[in-house]
Amino acid sequence: MVAGPLAGVRVLDFSWIGVGCITTWLLAELGAEVWKVEPVDGSDNARTMEPLVRGVGVNHLVFDRGKKSFPVDVRRPEGREAYLAVASVVDVVVEGMRPGVADRLGVGAEALRERNPALSYVTLPGYGSGGPLSATAGHDLNYAAMAGVLSMARQDRPAPAPVQVADWVAASLAALAAVSGVHQAGRTRTGLVAESSLFDGAMFALVVAQAQALMLGLDVGPRTSMLNGELACYAVYTCADGELLAVAALEERFWRRFCALTGIDDEGAQYDRSRQDRLRGVVAGVLATRPRAEWLALFADQDVCVSPVLTVAQGLQLPHVRERAGVVPMRHPDGSVVDAPAAPLRVGPPGAARPTATAVARTPALGEGARELLGLSGRSSAEIDRLHGAGVVFAP
């Protein structure tokens, strides 16, 4: 077993499904011991939400691997007390409910930190805990729309972003907050309370465009900045066989080399905003004369920042991905081994192994780990049996 940098750190994930499970997945991949809080009846949507792999949700297979399971009913007094007790022996709680819900249940930051001042409490509300939108329901599409992400890619009508920008940014920031809290507690014996809202995640992804809006009075839209289609040297083009090339020869040295290899005379128009439409037409016309494979052969090892536009499945087959262990084996609940995407984290020198706890990770069965966690909080085996029999916890 390989111990990651967060070995010995205990995390309680009270997000069920959503961004919190991504946050704690990252922490687990770094070696933290993560217990996933679930309903005692096993109704957590992550286990059953489509798409399914032989009856098991893909979200559960990916984001819950390497975790343990702690099903508890915090709406019942004994369940709430059990939750408060286990929170006193963990380092981090990640919570994904709407603002105020955890407090109304009696399991919010104040109640938990009263028993465990060293605890760091990280919450992931949709629009944040303050402001006129704090109680508003939403999903990634809503946050991306409100922050301005969708307007930057607008054609006739914006389409949903191909990846969940708000979710992934907010989850990464929440993981950073959790690690910061553990570090602070190690120095001061006092954890922190942090918030990483999904709307703020979408806003953070736009920080450069926001700076342009605030400092230059420029409301960035489609093709209004060098990184969203304004420049011909940073765009996607179609080859003779209909395949696509992504040209990102943004710096002058890359562009000079690209033009030399393709025979393009740009007449000094690389950054001239008034001549981009003409230049884009020139580049499109040249790249349309050959199939993509020929262009890629020409550009190979030439430092021109040109890449093929691949599908997700094609990207996974790249030798580069396989060599860097971008795909890892994991055990399906039916006992078979399936391939799964790896977390994008490496610790150590170049080429170091990922800090995954086991070579073949797996997801927990419902309640697997509940007895261990309750035992750490001081509960006897007989008392755990009683709570299990009463349906307060599920600890088989």
From TrEMBL:
Q: Which GO terms describe its molecular function?
A: alpha-methylacyl-CoA racemase activity
Q: Is Isomerase among the key words of this record?
A: yes
- Under which main EC class is this enzyme filed? isomerase
Q: What keywords sit in the KW lines?
A: Isomerase
Q: Which InterPro entries match?
A: CoA-transferase_III, CoA-Trfase_fam_III, CoA-Trfase_III_dom3_sf, CoA-Trfase_III_dom_1_sf
Q: Which SUPFAM superfamilies match?
A: CoA-transferase family III (CaiB/BaiF)
Q: Which EC numbers does the record give?
A: 5.1.99.4
Q: Which PANTHER family match?
A: ALPHA-METHYLACYL-COA RACEMASE, SUCCINYL-COA--D-CITRAMALATE COA-TRANSFERASE
Give the protein name, as stated in the record: Alpha-methylacyl-CoA racemase
Q: Which organism is it from?
A: Pseudonocardia dioxanivorans (strain ATCC 55486 / DSM 44775 / JCM 13855 / CB1190)
Upper classification of the source organism reads: Bacteria, Bacillati, Actinomycetota, Actinomycetes, Pseudonocardiales
